[in-house]
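Input/output pair, single chain:
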Amino acid sequence: MYEFEEKMQEALKELAEEELMFFYRKHGALDNFFKIQYMGHSNWFVIPQNVEGNYLTNEKGEYLFIDREEKNEYPVSALETSEIKNVLKKRVEKLKKARKIKQLFEEPSSFGFECFFKQIILSDLSSISEKTKEEIMQEVYEYLKKCYSPLQIEEESARYLKKKKEQKGALKTIAHKRKLYLFPCLDHYFYVNIQNDEIIEELKYFDTSKESAIQCFKKKSHEYYEQNIQKQIESWG
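Output:
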């Protein structure tokens, strides 16, 4: 069983390296389920697992790798990494076709961008409410759509995630009850001023001018530091 899981992980890893827009993860609550994603379309598979002493088996007692959508069952002892990958590739091809049909009627998925933003960008924006993080992410996405197509945003986000493309960290200033951030996202720069960890007082965009963004951040940070110091002086009476 352990050998099969190793083969499964290797097959998933190889396919993710070959397909820029392909992602996968295990279900948070059910470790024997995993999800594959392609441009917002998803499917589930089942990994054999010991559940209260009983493995998922067929009438022959063979441990099974189950493709729930196709209702196919594969005895794991007979599968090699390449065969597991072929099963997954067939599903990805099906998802690709579904995406081509769906994009005729709907805007492309922002799944890849959301993964990138949450894993790379929001990891630098600490102690902010989840609602505020979502608002920032949506604001940034709407701005980027003025510069790129949704598909271009998805592709570039996937490159940052998968190719380990270097992403600069956020600058941060904490002044009284405010937190100021300057962070890059897909080579654009965004300044945000947050009060009490949940109120967005200002969100400013800078195309690709790092110098202008940094000067703005320094100026705003200095202003709030000065205000904070003045409030403390006034509290002395």
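DSSP finds six helices and nine strands in the chain. The two ends are 72 Å apart (CA to CA).
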